[in-house]
Inverse folding.
């Protein structure tokens, strides 16, 4: 991968994570007035607002954000394919986009859980980013805590989720095309 491909890939992936966060914020009913949430909303609103007129949300599912995530990956793949001078197969592009969005959501979840776990070791008082991370990850950690409560004040739910995510990632790499290369 040359330097320009790396830069294009990184910029598109960063924006994709912001779009996935936008979808996740609405799904988890996180505090939209939080400064971090406001950053995510302001970074995505110029594109999502016009899309929302054509594709309204279905309950808590923000269909416009979901569609934008797929579009971001498709445009990224088209740009990278154009830069490489290769041909584009539309079916491969769509399949790759779906897989890429799902995998990036998993990567985002991993990093949010890791940062949340590390920050939980320190008493920092109120932090808007930690507050949003808690609101987004708690629906995933709470069911694990019901089955495996804290042992001696040590919460192992993040470790259990990491093991489950790694297992799912290995299964997907084995059975889903493109999973391992994304």
């Amino acid at each position: 991968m040359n330097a320009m491909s790396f830069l294009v890939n990184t910029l598109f992936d960063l924006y994709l994570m912001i779009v996935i966060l936008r979808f996740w914020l609405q799904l988890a009913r996180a505090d939209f007035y939080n400064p971090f949430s406001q950053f995510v909303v302001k970074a995505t609103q110029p594109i999502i607002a016009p899309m929302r007129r054509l594709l309204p949300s279905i309950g808590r599912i923000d269909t416009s954000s979901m569609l934008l995530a797929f579009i971001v990956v498709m445009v990224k793949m088209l740009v990278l394919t154009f830069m490489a001078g290769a041909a584009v197969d539309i079916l491969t592009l769509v399949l790759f986009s779906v897989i890429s969005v799902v995998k990036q959501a998993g990567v985002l979840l991993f990093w949010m859980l890791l940062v949340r776990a590390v920050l939980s070791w320190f008493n920092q008082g109120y932090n808007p980013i930690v507050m949003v991370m808690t609101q987004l990850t708690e629906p995933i950690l709470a069911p694990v805590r019901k089955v495996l409560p804290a042992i001696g004040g040590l919460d192992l739910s993040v470790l259990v989720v990491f093991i489950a995510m790694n297992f799912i990632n290995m299964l997907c790499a084995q059975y889903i095309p493109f999973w391992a290369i994304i």
User: Anything to note?
Assistant: Residues 90-119 form the longest helix (30 residues).
